UniProtKB/TrEMBL annotation:
The modification 4-aspartylphosphate is found at D53. Signal peptide: none annotated. The keyword Phosphoprotein applies. PROSITE patterns: RESPONSE_REGULATORY (PS50110). InterPro entries: Bact_response_regulator, CheY-like_superfamily, Sig_transdc_resp-reg_receiver. The keyword Glycosyltransferase does not apply. Keywords: Phosphoprotein. This is Response regulator receiver domain-containing protein. The lineage of its organism: Bacteria, Pseudomonadati, Thermodesulfobacteriota, Desulfovibrionia, Desulfovibrionales. Residues 4-116 form the Response regulatory domain.
Length: 117
């Protein structure tokens, strides 16, 4: 069964781009346009991994991540930050990898395969 990746980003072009990239590599994808929708999708879809933009309207990446880690059932889902935002927010632990935009496909896909073999 294909592993499922939740992509949380407010940019429709990034959602499409990452969905296609992951699907071409055999992953199933689910998308959310902000942190509020992202947390709903986590509960409904039970993804194996999450890619997370930090700068979004409504509930941004920092609040999404904090909410995810408070949720006992889903707190251990691995997260990769894919964002153009500057310094690492303090809420993100050092074990959360960060990919800057523009996206390095090879680096991102290596992280994904390392985190959900």
């Amino acid at each position: 069964m294909a592993k499922k990746i939740l992509i949380v980003d407010d940019d429709p072009e990034i959602l499409d781009y990452l969905s296609e990239l992951f699907q071409d590599s055999g992953y199933k994808t689910v998308t959310a346009i902000n942190g509020v929708e992202g947390l709903e999708k986590v509960r409904a879809e039970q993804p194996d991994l999450i890619t997370l933009d930090m700068d979004m309207p409504e509930k941004g990446g920092t609040n999404f991540y904090a909410g995810l880690r408070k949720d006992q059932a889903n707190r251990d889902i691995p997260v990769i930050v894919v964002s153009g935002v500057g310094p690492r927010p303090p809420v993100l632990t050092k074990d959360v990898p960060t990919i800057s935009k523009p996206i390095d496909n090879a680096k991102l896909m290596q992280l994904v395969s390392d985190m959900i073999p």
